[in-house]
Automatic annotation (TrEMBL):
Cited Pfam families: DBD_Tnp_Mut (PF03108), MULE (PF10551)
Signal peptide region: none
Naturally occurring in which organism (per UniProt): Arachis duranensis (Wild peanut)
Domain (MULE transposase) ranges: 191-265
InterPro entries according to UniProt: MULE_transposase_dom, Transposase_MuDR
Name listed for the protein in its UniProt record: Uncharacterized protein LOC107494270
Domain named Transposase MuDR plant: residues: 29-89
Amino acid sequence: MNQPTNVDQQHPVIHGERPSMIGMDDFEVRQRFETKEEAVLTIKSYNIHRGVEYKVFESDQLKYHGKCVQFGNGCKWLIRVTMRQRKGYWEVRKYNGPHTCLATEISTDHKQLDYHVICASILSLVMADASISVKVLQNVVSSKFGFKPSYRKVWMVRKGNTEDASTIFFHRLFWMFPPCIEAFKYCKPLISIDGTHLYEKYEGTLLMAIAQDGNSNILPVAFGLVEGENTDSWKFFLSHLRQHVTSQPGILVISDRHNAIKAALLVEDGG
């Protein structure tokens, strides 16, 4: 525990430790934190080190309230931290602890070992050497908390810490193949559109438009890479589809009636 300060002689205060210095035995009522972020990181790190998890029941600009996932089932651990607006700091107002449940096996990862906790652990290393490998950072986090986050989770944190204002981001892409566009002239006057999620390293959504010839053979006519299925991304895809593929009138569109598709089709230039 940190030593009490002399800020308030009537109520000695124990300041929350920085995430990189977590080593406290437990929390105390009236324990202070400079910001909500410091309080949350400390609570998460506390639970990660003990191999237990908690759920957040309230969280806003004035309070943060969490309970053990086993609360009411053998454990009474809970913590409530609130903002003391007049004094300008966050304070533990209620605490039942320590955990009385047994630490459970949580595979090799931990729910509370999220972006913010990992970032606080590796930021200085990434800032000192932007080329540091993800595997090294994985091992750093593992040696600190006893849980090893996935490669992708650490990669996303590292990626976020190495981007600056000069970074160019991929937004959207539409493409088609001329032979398919030429063949569409002899197909049925209908287009089927749909989207599918992309996984692993590169996320986003692949949008597709396909047609059928007179023998019901499938003909792919257009593709799009977008951030997800929303009105803007479908408007982007459908407007290019209209401009480059289905310029003729009277084309029937078949879809799964996704709300974003319906909204995009209602836009004047959305197809």
